[in-house]
Amino acid sequence: MHKLYTSPASPFSAKVRLAALYAGIELEKHIVVTSDEPAELLAANPLGKIPTLVTPEGKAVFDSRVITQYLNRISGNKLFPRNAEKRLDAEKFESLADGLADALVAHVYERIKRPEEIVHQPILDWHWRKAERALDLLNETAPRIGAKIHTGHIAIASTLGYLNLRFGNGWERGRPKLKRWFKRFAELHPELAAQLPKAA
Predict the structure, then answer these.
(1) What does CATH list as the number for 2-74?
(2) Residues in domain GST N-terminal (predicted)?
(3) Strands of the 52-54 sheet, one edge to the other
């Protein structure tokens, strides 16, 4: 069985959990705290980052985008369209969602990992501007959602789940289409919505 080093709150880990579930690939989940630098995680990934996947043969696979490509291959293309143009769109949406998640995680770390007196507001503002631009673009361009989805849908939903967890739902104001999109995702794929980021 595939082993996944993961965290309940991580948007990148959530993306991999959702992708594996959608593709029908069973995972043995190992919840880790990366700041503890657990030996088993470092043995698989010297960067100590999550998600890290270990194949049944013992081969480590990271980061999340490499993992989704790997899961797509072993599932017979269940996570990306076969059509080249549609696949590129899916990959672009995954990249956009991951970039949004990067900005959100960096914002959270700046806020909670530093003593309040040395939190750098311009850095927080810079990350938030990136997040707002990405959200505005997704409000206008998020891929149509139905029973059949791809990794782009999964990445967007995972990042919006993280956004709700860490920042609440204020992002919905002025973005009615993206709000409806996220609600529709949960309605059509409740088993995936149950795997969205949660507090550790």
Answers:
(1) 3.40.30.10
(2) 1-79
(3) 27-31, 2-6, 52-54, 60-61
